[in-house]
Amino acid sequence: MTNPSSIIEHSPPPIRTGARRESYIHDLRPLKVGNVGVGFPIVQAALSGYSDWPMRVVAKRLGAPYTIAEVLLDRFILDLKQRHRTQRHLMVSDEEHPVGGQLMGSDPEQFAPAATKLVEAGFDVIDINFGCPVKSAMGGCRGGYHLSHPDVALEIIGRVRDAVPDRIPVTVKMRRGIDDSQLSHDHFFTILDGAFDRGVAGITVHGRTVEQKYNGPSNWDFLREVKQHAGQRTIIGSGDAFTASACLEMLTHTGVDAVSVARGAIGNPWIFRQARDLADGRPMYEPSLAEQRRVLTMQRELCQQVYDERGCGTTMRKFGIKFARLHPDFEQVRNAFAKAKDLAAWTRVLDEWYPESNE
Questions:
Q1: What are the distances in angstroms from CA 179 to CA 75, 144, 201, 257?
Q2: How far is residue 252's CA from residue 246's CA, in Å, rounded to a whole number?
Q3: Do 265 and 68 meet the contact criterion of CB atoms below 8 Å apart?
Q4: Which of 72, 157, 217, 354 is buried deepest, with most CB atoms within 10 A?
Q5: In Å, what is the CA distance from 352 to each residue of 304, 349, 355?
Q6: Which residue, 36, 49, 65, is CA-closest to 247?
């Protein structure tokens, strides 16, 4: 079970949805990834430990036009057996489409067969992760590590593109480099251009370096540079898209084709609807406590379809902590969810802090 103090320590600040009321009224271009129509250009990123099937379904029901499953190691996919306990990792339901599956690994030879398994599972897009900055990924020569080895990165992309059917778009997730050195900058653009040359349909670029991890600001000026360099090729921006207004600000500032929402979507699946509201000049939707209860209950019921009792309790505990950021009594609710040791305790927190109606 995850240490509750570690969850709290790395949580973004409370979401203050009513703090900004700008009227954007953007005429946003619909996003298309290869031959896959997405539509509204604000989408949900792959979120390690979070964007499982229940979270993706909730996001889709609340307005996300496209989601990506949490990253899976190529070796894990190849070794995965069709057991009830593990089948959730490759679970795709009809209401999710379009949905992407994300791969990470170290050995180029394992990417192609793993990508094929994702296609067989029903994913519409195959996304390759060259952005993960965590120590385990870097130490295992995975994720962001490949940004320092363009030849290997491009071999991986080529193998995946050759392995999956032409109708399945292949995309790539990158950070702006290992660090801010000129060599890292050069490697980034070598991979970017080489990826498009090999048939990649779009690239998501995070404005932080691997060295930054999740600290410091995302460099949106770099995202603008990348989009200007890419021209008509599809670039999706990522980093510091914590609110609906920030998503639209990124589109305006950088000119990217879409925004990938990561941590900003954890605990606020309404962010996609809120962005649509702002883009259309409408007042931004703010979920009542009764609506928050409805969605938390929905996610719990979905979790119960794919997790055992213990797994469901652990999963909903960490989501409860994130949802608490929308509650007016943020700290008390967050701490209450953090102390919930099982699903029954989690349900008691829900009953105590979230009314069933707005009356």
A1: 28, 11, 26, 25
A2: 10
A3: no
A4: 157
A5: 21, 5, 8
A6: 65
* pLDDT single digits (tens) 47-66: 999 999 999 999 999 999 99
User: Counting beta carbons within 10 angstroms of the beta carbon of residue 54, is it exposed (0 to 12), middle (13 to 18) or buried (19 or more)?
Assistant: buried
106-259-76 Cα angle (round to 5) = 25
Radius of gyration of the chain (CA): 20
pLDDT digits (tens, 9 = 90+) for 330-354: 999 999 999 999 999 999 999 999 9
User: How wide is the angle at C-alpha 179 spanned by C-alphas 178 and 182, nearest 5°?
Assistant: 105
pTM attached to this predicted model: 0.91
Nearest to 91 by CA among 59, 66, 120, 112: 120
d(CA 31, CA 266) in angstroms, rounded, equals 22
Rounded CA separation 116/55 (Å): 24
- Domain range summary for the chain, segments of one domain joined by +: 22-279, 289-353
How far is Cα 280 from Cα 22, in angstroms, rounded to an integer? 11
Per-residue pLDDT tens digits for 117-151: 999 999 999 999 998 888 888 888 888 989 999 99
**Rounded to whole angstroms, how far apart are CA atoms 43 and 272?**
8
Residue that has been written with the tokens 């209860």 in this structure:
293
**Positions of the chain with pLDDT under 50:** 1-24
Q: Which helix (H) or strand (E) holds 171?
A: strand 170-175
End-to-end CA distance of the chain: 37
CB of 209 within 8 A of CB of 199? Answer: no
Nearest to 187 by CA among 222, 149, 155: 149
Q: In which element (H, E) is residue 109 found?
A: helix 108-121
Q: Could you tell me which CATH class the domain 22-279 is placed in?
A: alpha beta
